[in-house]
Design goal:
By secondary structure, this protein is α+β, with helices and mostly antiparallel strands. It has one domain. It is built from ten helices and ten strands. It has a six-stranded mixed sheet, with helices on both faces. Strands 1-5 form a two-stranded antiparallel ribbon. Strands 2-3 form a two-stranded antiparallel sheet. A hairpin with an 8-residue loop joins strand 2 and strand 3. The protein is elongated. It starts with 5 loop residues before the first strand and ends with a strand. 37% of the residues are buried.
């Protein structure tokens, strides 16, 4: 028996998936005082979130073979610092691109105008033309800019060109600062702090790790970042300072692209978001959406 095509208006999928109690940037804590909590360990942070059984902290535990010390860690720190400094050099270019996107975003856009008359077809085998997809997803990106999803809308908009530039965000950038307010950032930070404590106790001068990975979801990053980043890799290194504190350098890396999700999740809103994701994956196959790389850097201070 042939599979029946499931046709759903893209605007319906998008609008329904946006009707969620999520924040634009960071996932805020809603736990009561008696719940177990996880706190961001860095000296300058006050972020605290409810801890759950499936907390990403456990997934982010660093294996002994992934840790480097002393000279190797110092070299890793220098590499992250160098990449972050390079990111500062392109901030003006990215800022200009952000202004271009914001200038395109209307004050309001009725949902009916988003991909008007078009449909997502689950299990469809035929691809549409590149220009057809680009027109659809440009409307979607601009609509996202009107409903408090500025980052994901901006990044989608950037992908709708033949040769999008890679994007790097230094420690001082607003995007890097915003990402550091999320639960997923706290989740990967806690194991780093534990490794620094061990290194400090052992008399080490530097420690770090690389080729680690984690992923965002609506609960740990908010809808805007969830629609921007998926599974990402990261590395970090820390140097002991003369005052006894540790300077921590963190690099977060992702490829902006879309992979087909099979099977479609049954739970809401993941099922709707997955359908839109697969529509974007088809647009990528048609070369309407073009992948590019994203690097985000942060510097922190830690007192063991």
């Amino acid at each position: 028996m042939k599979n029946k095509l499931l046709k759903i208006p893209v605007a319906t999928l998008l609008v329904t998936s946006l009707l969620l109690p999520t924040t634009s940037f960071a996932a805020e804590s809603t736990a009561s005082d008696d719940e177990n909590m996880i706190s961001n360990p860095w000296d300058e942070s006050t972020q605290t979130f409810p801890s759950t059984e499936d907390s990403l902290v456990e997934e982010a535990i660093i294996k002994p073979e992934e840790v480097v010390y002393d000279q190797s860690a110092l070299e890793l720190a220098d590499e992250i610092k160098s990449d972050s400094a390079a990111a500062e050099q392109v901030e003006d270019i990215i800022a200009e691109e952000d202004v271009t996107f914001q200038d395109e975003v209307p004050l309001t856009m009725p949902p009916s105008n988003v991909m008007e008359g078009q449909e997502v077809m689950l299990q469809s085998t035929s691809l549409k033309a590149k220009s057809w997809y680009r027109d659809q997803f440009k409307k979607m990106s601009l609509y996202m800019g009107t409903v408090k999803l500025p980052t994901s809308g901006n990044f989608l908009y950037h992908s709708l060109q033949d040769k999008p530039s890679d994007r790097q965000y230094s420690n001082s950038s607003s995007l890097a600062k915003a990402f550091s307010l999320t639960k997923v950032y706290t989740s990967i930070s806690v194991p780093m702090a534990e490794e620094i404590k061990k290194a400090n106790k052992a008399g080490r001068k530097a420690v770090g790790a690389f080729n680690l990975s984690s992923s965002t979801n609506i609960a740990n990053a908010g809808l805007d970042f969830y629609l921007t980043f998926g599974k990402f890799s990261y590395d970090w290194a820390a140097e002991k300072q003369s005052n006894g504190k540790w300077k921590v350098y963190i690099g977060i890396h992702d490829k902006y692209d879309y992979l087909t999700i099979k099977p479609i999740p049954k739970n809401f809103p993941d099922n709707y978001i997955s359908l839109v994701n697969n529509h974007a994956a088809n647009a990528q196959k048609a070369k309407a959406i073009v992948p590019y790389y994203i690097d985000v850097f942060r510097e922190q201070t830690f007192t063991p």
